[in-house]
From TrEMBL:
It comes from Marinobacterium stanieri. InterPro entries: Phage_tail_E/E (IPR019289). It comes from the Bacteria. Pfam families: Phage_TAC_7 (PF10109). This is Phage tail assembly chaperone protein, E, or 41 or 14.
Length: 117
């Protein structure tokens, strides 16, 4: 009796699709740890004007760390603390800041950029 073998060739490469993230989400290179909880994806929502109180838009858009430490806890899910942001890998903080900057571009400008790209 012959042993059953797979029909797939030995050198076939399987491509794994990346997990689809919710809109305005960032997968962290260095997950945050809070006790037993591990946070590896942060989802942001567009801030309302009141959530920008006490902040300079120029500093937010220039990815000022202090401004991001103030704003991210107001618009993140799961809710980050100021200390979470302070402990974050700089590359992850930059990605979140870039995502925030997208919120400040008008829809028409985004569409124009998309059409010219």
């Amino acid at each position: 009796m012959k042993a059953k073998t797979d029909d797939k060739p030995q050198n076939e490469v399987t491509i794994v699709e990346p997990e689809k993230l919710p809109p305005h989400s960032v997968r962290l290179d260095e997950p945050l740890k809070r006790g037993n909880q591990v946070i590896d994806v942060i989802t942001l929502r567009k801030p309302k004007s009141g959530e920008l109180r006490g902040l300079s838009l120029q500093e937010v858009l220039s990815l000022d760390v202090n401004s991001l430490q103030t704003l991210l806890p107001r618009i993140s899910s799961p809710t980050l603390t100021k200390q979470d942001v302070a402990d974050m890998d700089p590359a992850d903080l930059t990605q979140l800041g870039v995502q925030i900057s997208v919120f400040f571009v008008q829809k028409q400008r985004k569409e124009e950029a998309f059409l010219t790209a």
